[in-house]
Design brief:
Length: about 220
């Protein structure tokens, strides 16, 4: 198995991490081509997805040169080991685990740890995090991101949970550098109904709205 490495150029071209949770390989065989065609380049498979490690390995082999394939819901060093062995190119956590961050830094694997309070955010950044996943972003919303960016303006923030087509521009204006997004991109109803063309159109609409806003900024 050839493990591809993380590409910051791909990430920065569209700093949105699409979050896949609980989806089968059969569904993903339709979702990933649509996701890539729409313009997205970063994909996260949560470890609480059935057969997550085999899915990550499969995606790395199939899309690892075209996209950054990562593992999410990594909560412990044991989780990290499973994710890395599966070929994850980056790591996302829902919580702050400094040991996980240090291991990723040592192995030169980008790490996006979940944090919320100013203390957690600062601890994660000092430990070497690539960006801080503000989770759940819906709790404090755009106002919270703006307030955090006041004293901690040098820390890169990746709001996750509650970011939508309607509010992403406000998060960017507040200082967010990227996003983690699940259901707003991977529409559960369209996926359940196997409406792949409609799903790709929805993804493309989100991508175009993002690109239009960034270009106009």
């Amino acid at each position: 198995m050839k493990n591809h490495t993380f590409d910051w150029g791909l990430f920065n071209s569209i700093p949105i991490i699409g979050i896949l949770r609980g989806l089968t390989r059969e569904k993903l065989d339709h979702i990933l081509p649509a996701y890539y065609s729409a313009g997205f380049r970063n994909i996260e498979v949560t470890l609480n997805t059935p057969d997550a490690t085999s899915i990550i390995q499969w995606l790395n082999e199939k899309y690892g040169e075209q996209m950054n394939v990562g593992a999410g819901t990594v909560c412990s060093p044991a989780d990290l080991e499973k994710a890395v062995n599966a070929g994850a190119q980056f790591i996302v956590t829902p919580i702050l685990n400094v040991d996980v961050i240090h291991s990723c830094v040592e192995s030169k694997i980008p790490i996006f740890p979940g944090a919320y309070s100013p203390t957690e955010i600062y601890q994660a950044w000092e430990a070497g995090a690539s960006m801080i996943k503000i989770f759940p972003a819906s709790l404090g919303g755009v106002a919270y991101i703006k307030q955090i960016k006041g004293p901690l303006n040098n820390i890169k923030l990746l709001p996750t949970g509650g970011v939508s087509l309607e509010n992403f521009s406000e998060f960017l204006q507040a200082g967010a550098e990227g996003f983690g997004i699940g259901g707003e991109i991977f529409d559960k109803k369209l996926i359940a109904a196997d409406k792949w063309q409609e799903l790709e159109e929805k993804m493309r609409h989100f991508f175009n709205k993002y690109q239009d806003f960034v270009s106009a900024s």
